[in-house]
Amino acid sequence: MNYLGLTLLKCLVGLAVASAATGAVAQTWPSGPVRMIAPQAAGGGPERVIRALAQGLGSRLGQPVVVDYRPGAAGNIGTAEFARSAADGNTWMLGPENVLTINPIVYRSTGFNPQDIVPVRIVGTLHQVLACHPRVGVRSVAELAAAARTRGLNYASSGPGSTAHLGMEVFLQEMRIDMNHVPYRGPAPAVQDLVGGHVDCAMLVASALIEHVRSGRLVGLGVTGPERLPALPGVPTLREAGATGAGEASFSLVMFARRGVAADIMDKFGRALDETLRSADLVEALAANNINPSTVSGDLAGQELQRATQRWGAQIQRVQLRLD
After folding, report:
1. Which of 269-281 are b and which e, b meaning 16 or more Cβ less than 10 Å from the residue's Cβ?
2. What is the dihedral angle through the alpha carbons of 282, 283, 287, 291, rounded to the nearest 10 degrees?
3. Which of 30, 42, 103, 241 has a CA that sits 20 to 30 A from residue 66's CA?
4. Are 110 and 79 within 8 A, CB to CB?
5. Residue 21 has pLDDT above 80, yes or no
6. Among 198, 218, 248, residue at a domain's last position
7. With left for phi above 0 and alpha for psi between -120 and 50, is residue 164 left, alpha or beta?
């Protein structure tokens, strides 16, 4: 055998060995519990979806999927923890898009490199509801704007730089009014103080506010997105109310992977994720949280987040929001 033939043979043998090793990774993974980081407080946002996803993935992967809540800094704390994890497929993250689309623009330092994180699948789209406590005495966006011009009002958010914060700031600028910002560590404590009348208004994820609006404990003034929410047919969209920019403050729930996870593990996890999202439990959980399901994955998910980054970037520049 000549030198060229020998070299080719060595390459083929090397490829065969690498292929066998890669296949072995898929067969042995996962060999223990899988961690799913949620960069938010427990009990906040789409809690039912998080639990159902963990249970469904665990049953399909043959190992328990443990949810690790890491709240704070609009998701930066949990995302930084995720970015420090090994790219071995044993740690994933389910979180709002803002960790990649908003935070790197708003925060001078996020504590992580966005290039270390890649979207696996957009799970769905979440909408926000603008609501006020009944004691504020307003029933519409126009009435809220008039009230804010005559007396000092405040609003709660799920944290500085969150979609709730940014969406509300865009709304205030559009209405040409001012309200004092009261940030919380996640939507749950913000809702608690809003319902208790300790703060006046908030724009928060729909799942956290819908039941309070339906019961009359809060007054719904507008919802983000192009259409009214089926659960709140009497509440207009913010676009209908004249706040077009704030009306775009819906956002995606995304499953993220560490860059560098082996392709066969990504494929195996992706199949388990797709099967879980098609299950009756997940379909019901998404509907209960008023999340519009998505089928966008892989490179298309990355492109979708790039478009969202451009959209949020324009809004961030508009309100000149910058955080340490």
Report:
1. bbebbeebbebeb
2. 70
3. 103
4. yes
5. no
6. 248
7. alpha
Query: Which residue type occupies 254?
Result: V
| Identity of the residue numbered 32 | G
Residue with tokens 């270390």: 116
Count of domains for the chain:
2
Based on the domain organization, do 224 and 302 belong to the same domain?
no
pLDDT value at 305 more than 70: yes
Side chain identity at 36, as an amino acid letter?
A: M
Q: Please name the residues in contact with 139: beta carbons below 8 A apart, sequence gap of 6 or more.
A: 219, 221
- 195 and 133 in contact (C-beta within 8 Å)? yes
Token couple for 67:
């949810």
Same domain? For 235 and 132 the reply is yes
Could you tell me the residue range of the domain that residue 37 belongs to? Answer: 21-126+252-319
Q: Give the C-alpha separation, 60 to 89, whole Å.
A: 15
Tell me the CA distances in angstroms from 290 to 169, 210, 228, 283, 284, one per residue in order. 23, 9, 11, 11, 10
Identify the CA nearest to 190 among candidates 159, 212, 211: 159
Q: What digits encode the pLDDT tens for the residues 89-124?
A: 999 999 999 999 999 999 999 999 999 999 999 999
Which of 231, 245, 250 is closest to 304 using CA atoms?
250
pLDDT at residue 44, as a whole number: 64
Report whether pLDDT(8) > 80. no
